[in-house]
Amino acid sequence: MDISGGIKASLAGRYAAALFELAEENKQLDAVEGSLAKLKSALADSEEFATLTTSPLVGRSEAIAATQSVSDSLGLDPLTTNFLGTLAENRRLAQLGAAIRAFSTIAAQYRGEANAEVISAHPLTDDQVAALKAKLKSLAGRDVNVDMNVDPSLLGGLVVRMGSRMIDGSLRTKLNTLASAMKG
């Protein structure tokens, strides 16, 4: 499988590529993707877990023990548990979020899909997400996995990042553009 050099060029990308190759080899892609989704959610929802991954004050042995505890409580598959332990052992837990995103990109490439990150001012309904996916599919020419995030500071609208393209239809950006134009 050809993985783009851009992903492998980063530290997180190399970890993600190694995890992907192991998951594919062991036919556990779905299990690993599910576990990584749980980890991503835990990073977003748990300030303690986010601090564990980024704090230089957490020692190697404490990080290993904490990641094992997190793995057990989240019910992660053995491959992802080992991956998390390797990150902790190598003092690379700060790369976890980037490695999850890189894995998602690699998995989407493998399935012939595209990834899009969508940031909205408020949570979108299922119908809105489905319509957005259909529109992005028509732009990309293939199925699109959508990673939804909410940022109330956008005030309204969406920001969509798909590959090297970014579409910023947020109210915040429109107001900033208007303010700049009014300054003359």
Task: Chart the SSEs and their pairings.
Elements: H1 5-8, H2 11-25, H3 29-45, H4 47-54, H5 60-74, H6 78-89, H7 96-111, E1 114-120, H8 126-140, E2 144-150, E3 158-162, E4 165-168, H9 171-183
Parallel strand pairs: 1-2
Antiparallel strand pairs: 1-3, 3-4
Helix pairs in contact: 2-6, 2-7, 3-7, 5-6
Structure description:
- The protein starts with a helix and ends with a helix.
- The longest helix is centred in the N-terminal third of the chain and has 17 residues, at 29-45.
- It has nine helices and four strands, in the order αααααααβαβββα.
- The chain has two domains: 5-107, N-terminal domain of the delta subunit of the F1F0-ATP synthase (Peroxidase, domain 1); 113-183, 3-Layer(aba) Sandwich (Glutaredoxin).
- It has 184 residues and is an alpha+beta fold.
- Strand 3 and strand 4 form a beta hairpin.
- Helix 2 (11-25) crosses helix 7 (96-111), helix 3 packs antiparallel against helix 7 and helix 5 runs antiparallel to helix 6.
- Strands 2-1-3-4 form a four-stranded mixed beta sheet.
- The model has no long low-confidence stretch (mean pLDDT 90).
- Helix content is 62%, strand content 12%.
